[in-house]
Amino acid sequence: MDRIYLDHAATSPMHPAVIEQMVPHMQNVFGNPSSIHGFGRESRRLLDEARSVIAASLHARPKEIIFTSGGTEADNMAILGAASAYRHKGNHIITTQVEHHAVLNTCKNLEKQGFEVTYLPVDTDGSISVEALKKALKPETILVTIMYGNNETGSVQPVQEIGMALKNHPALFHTDAVQAYGLLDLDVKECGIDMLSASGHKINGPKGTGFLYLREGISLKQQSYGGEQELKRRAGTENVPGIYGLKAAAELALKTKEEKAAQYREFKMKLMEVLKEEEVSFEVNGTLEGSLPHVLNLYFPGTNVEAMLVNMDLAGIAVSSGSACTAGSIEPSHVLTAMYGDHERTKASIRFSFGYGNTLDQIEKTARVTAGIVKRLTA
Fold first, then answer.
1. CB atoms < 10 A from the CB of 340, how many?
2. I need a surface site. Which of 181, 199, 241, 254 has the fewest CB within 10 A?
C-alpha cells in the first residue's frame, strides 16, 4: 500500500539536499565552537554562516539570532525571559485563545506566578480584532505574544497591524512564526516584531533545531545557566551539524517559497473540487484567502474525528486533527472551540497539511478516499 503523508504541519521529512549538506559536517566537523584552536574555529565559521543566512531571511542582524532546540524552547525563552526581565515595569501579558500550547501553557504558568494574562478571542475566520487588542492594552502591559499563522486552521493574524498598534506602547511584541517561516515573507523591522520563534523540522530541516529572533536592545532573563554561548543568551554547546542543516533548509525554503505556495493552494482547490464532485458535505474552518498556503482544515458534518483518523490511517493516509489524544479519548480542539464555540465541528474536523513530496495525484486519491470514508460514517 502506497502511503500518503499529509501532516506536514506536525513535522516534515528532511529534504535530501539538507541531509547531503549535513553529513560531511557530522563526519568531519566536530570541534567545539567555543574552542580557539582550528577545529573550534571551523565549527564557529559554520555557526556564523548559518546565523547570517537566518538573519537575512528576516531582514535582521546576525547578532539578533539565538539558536535553540526548536520552536517550543524559543517561545519559552521569549515569554519567560521577557516576563522576568520586565516585571518591574508591569505584570500584564496579552495573547490569544488559539495559540500553540508552547505559548498557552507558558502563559498559564506565569499566571501561577502572579502575572495577569488576557486571552483575546477570535472570530470565525480565526483572527483577532486589532481594536480589541488596543482596548486590552494597559500601562502595565509588558508583552504581547500572538502567533503569525495558526497550526490547526492556517489562519494568519494581522501581524503588521498589531505591530503598528504597539508602536507607541512599551509592550514587547513576540510572534510564534513556526508555521509561517519559509512560506510567507517575514520582515521583523517592517512589522515591528521584537521577538520571533521558528523551528527547523517544519521546513524540511532536522528536528531539535530552531531559533529566536531577539531585537537588539531587548533584555531577556536567562533561563539556563552554564557557558557563554549564543552571546551569553543560551548556555550549552551548540548543535553545529543541526544548525547547519537548519540553515540549508531555510535557504531551500526561501528559494522555493512562491513556487510551493502556489502548488499548495492548487492542492487545496483540488482536494475540495474532488470532494464536491463526490457530493460530500464539508465546510472550511477559517478562510481560504487569509490562511497559510499549506494548511486546510475541513469540517465533515455527521462524522467523528477519531473514526475519521483511524480509517484514514488504515487507508495509508496520514492526516490529523487539532485535538490531543488522551487515554483513548479525543478532546475538542481549543482553536476550533475559540472560533465556533460548543459546535459539532470541534469534534468532526480534519487538518490536511501539505509539503515536500506531495503530488496532485496524491491529493486526488486522498480526496476520493476521504469521500468514501465520510459516506460510510454518515450512511
1. 18
2. 254
Whether residue 325 lies in the annotated active site: yes
Can you tell me the distance from the alpha carbon of 105 to that of 76, in angstroms, rounded to the nearest whole number?
9
Which pTM was predicted?
0.96
Helix/strand/coil for 180: coil
- pLDDT at position 239: 94
286/162 same-domain check: no
Start-to-end Cα distance in the chain: 26
Q: CATH number, domain at 99?
A: 3.40.640.10
- The sign of the dihedral angle between the CA atoms of 365, 371, 376, 377 is positive
**Judgement on whether residues 300 and 198 belong to the same structural domain of the protein:** no
- 325 residue type, one letter: C
Contact 14, 229 (CB under 8 A): no
Same-domain status, 8 and 38: no
- Residues 135-179 pLDDT 10s: 999 999 999 999 999 999 999 999 999 999 999 999 999 999 999
Of the residues 224, 325, 357, 378, only one is catalytic, namely 325
- Domain range for 31 is 16-255
pLDDT at residue number 322: 66
